[in-house]
Amino acid sequence: MSQVSLKQSLAKLGFAIFLTYLSVAMALPVVSVFVTEELKLPNWLGGAAVGVSFVATILSRKHAGNFADAKSSKKCFMLGFFFYMAAALVCMAADTSGMSASIAFAILIAGRLLLGIGESMATVGLLSWHFSRLGPSQSGKILSILGMAMYGTFALGGPVGLTLYKYFGFSSVMLASSIVPILGVIMFLTSPEVVPHKTTEAKKSFLNLLGTIWKQGFAVMLQGVGFAVLGAFISLYFKDQGWPYAGVGLSLFGIGFVISRILFGALPDKIGGVKVALVSLVVETVGQSLLWLAPHYSLALIGALLTGLGCSMIYPAMGVEVIKMVSPEQRGTAFGGFSMFQDIAYAFSAPIAGLLADKFSYSSTFLFGFIAGVVGIIIVRSMRINNLPSNSTAN
Questions:
Q1: Which 3-state string (H, E, C) describes 64-101?
Q2: 245 by DSSP, 3-state: which?
Q3: Do residues 360 and 246 lie in contact, with contact meaning Cβ atoms separated by under 8 Å?
Q4: Per the UniProt record, which residue ranges are transmembrane (predicted)?
Q5: For all residues of the chain together, what is the average pLDDT?
Q6: Residue 105, class by beta-carbon neighbours within 10 Å (0-12 exposed, 13-18 middle, 19+ buried)?
């Protein structure tokens, strides 16, 4: 593939993910506010509503990986886009007037579960499809573009979601979230299928794959704690402190994330993922400490920016290492398992942080993120630096 075609393919990938992931980004800071302020339920249930979508993602990762590897990676991510749309419409029904809080919460949870399945199918399918089309030597770039588009969406999606919620209510956020995935479907509708890899060799079981990549998985899981607590509670934290610019905090996180991917996206392919992940975790941990201890909103905003800068490169850095460790015909399944570790952080961090907020304060949620970052640093430091050149990636 020529450099022009490669750049066009990566740009299309990034733009499509940016559009479709608005379904997730616009809803993320709004869901916990809706649960606590409109349904009048406790913070831990607000966190649970945020995190439950990732439970569905965890449970569906194996199926999504097998579907992409054995059937069709394109159909896998297209189905994911349709799940995004369905999830938003179900969540919108939770805002029906006259409904009891318990029923509304149950409907909301159902929609969030559908969203989790959609995210699993969309991300695993897109990764597998692009690995096959562009080749494993581009894995670092593919992962960087994917994450930059996904989390860069929060620079726009978070504030847009909060603004829509403030002026037009929860239903307007969900309606918008149901529309944007349609554009992604249109963009890839005529794209070619990719023939799945065939092999006569025995495949590793899903559990064996997890055993192979567990350290890389734990690194992204611990990184995900900081992002999860920031996304779920920074708005409530700023409101509780009487600080302005809660939406700016989400934007700064997204901006930091995108800047890091633009400047350092090629580094994992060049110098190895371990070095990149280690530095990134240090930066994220400093950001979480500033959010935890900030006496003024300006330091908290800097902490949000540093969290984004640090979070950004850990997933692609560890993903490049995973690519080197698995065969081509199991990349989709391996990445399903690899991403599952991050999903675990997203599923359980927000509810745990909600309990901390109920018992102590909103600032304690960022202490949780700080501790996770420290543990992540220890795990990554224990990894053996892989000195193979970047072109040694399995073909």
A1: HHHHHHHCCHHHHHHHHHHHHHHHHHHHHHCCCCCCCH
A2: coil
A3: no
A4: 12-35, 81-107, 143-162, 168-189, 218-238, 244-264, 300-323, 335-356, 362-380
A5: 84
A6: buried
Two structure tokens written together for 220: 């992204």
- Region of poorest pLDDT, from 1-5, 39-43, 348-352, 370-374: 1-5
Give the separation between CA 386 and CA 2, rounded to whole angstroms. Answer: 29
Report the length, in residues, of the chain: 395
**329 DSSP 8-state letter:** G
Reading phi first (left if > 0) and then psi (alpha if -120 to 50, else beta), residue 27 is in: alpha
Under 8 Å between Cβ of 94 and 31: no
Q: All domains of the chain, ordered by start, with CATH?
A: 8-191+203-392 (1.20.1250.20)
How many CB atoms sit inside 10 A of residue 186's CB? Answer: 12
Task: Quickly count: other Cβ atoms within 10 Å of residue 202's Cβ.
Answer: 6
Question: Per-residue b/e over 61-79, b at no fewer than 16 CB within 10 Å?
Answer: bbbbbbbbbeebbbebbbb
d(CA 315, CA 238): 28
- Distance in angstroms (rounded) separating the CA atoms of residues 60 and 52: 13
pTM for this entry: 0.70
Tell me how far apart the alpha carbons of residues 316 and 148 are, in angstroms, rounded to a whole number.
10
Closest among 265, 308, 264, 267 to 286, alpha carbons compared:
308
Q: CA 32, CA 223: separation in Å to the nearest integer?
A: 21
CB 105 within 8 Å of CB 41: yes
- Token reading at 189: 């509708």
